[in-house]
Design goal:
The chain is mostly helical. The protein is built from ten helices and no strands.
């Protein structure tokens, strides 16, 4: 069966009807996303004594979550949504491993990841000062409000790239996930950065 004959919405509808062929097709179509994310966190997992097979299993579970929860009307492409689901599932696993090794709770994977030459939203608005819980809640509310404003300013294509930027993917990884040329993604990132700078003035 040629998966190119089916769009993602049709495949997910078929999976909802327990069609194993459709499940195999969508996995074949997007297994590269699992590979990208697995490689991204592989060394980190080894440092935390997480078995690679367990990490890969969590990636598969995240992908299954994406299939079960995806709604086309949410506007994100399935590739973007699946990337976020798999990424967050693995981050949860690594955070749990950090807790077991008595790591500092705020020492999260996304803050340690080496960014390319662009800044994510987290970098642009982060505050390194110690804050009390009330200030932290206020900061979270501000972040959410700012995030909503940003999304209103972005095109559908820019939203997909922005969501992946927030998950700490570089432009080459984003290009692979969205099946675009790296230069296209780089141009989109520059447009997003310019919009962010305007909003943050």
């Amino acid at each position: 069966m040629d998966y190119k004959e089916y769009n993602d919405h049709e495949l997910i509808m078929l999976i909802g009807e327990n069609n194993d062929d459709a499940r195999n097709i969508i996995y074949e179509k997007y297994h590269y996303i699992i590979d990208i994310i697995f490689k991204k966190y592989y060394k980190r997992a080894l440092a935390l004594a997480v078995e690679p097979s367990d990490l890969f299993q969590d990636a598969l579970l995240g992908f299954t979550d994406a299939i079960n929860r995806y709604k086309e009307e949410d506007q994100a492409s399935f590739a973007t949504f699946a990337t976020m689901c798999v990424d967050r599932r693995i981050k949860t696993t690594l955070r749990n491993a950090q807790t077991l090794k008595n790591k500092i709770a705020s020492d999260t994977v996304s803050l340690e990841y080496e960014y390319d030459d662009y800044l994510t939203l987290k970098d642009m608005i982060k505050d390194d000062r110690l804050v009390d819980p009330l200030d932290e809640v206020t900061d979270q509310e501000y972040y959410q409000e700012l995030n909503n404003k940003i999304l209103q300013e972005l095109s559908d294509n820019e939203k997909q790239v922005y969501q992946l930027m927030k998950e700490s993917y570089n432009y080459n990884e984003i290009a692979k996930i969205l099946n675009k040329e790296p230069k296209q993604v780089d141009n989109t990132i520059q447009r997003i950065k310019n919009k962010l700078k305007t909003l943050l003035k």
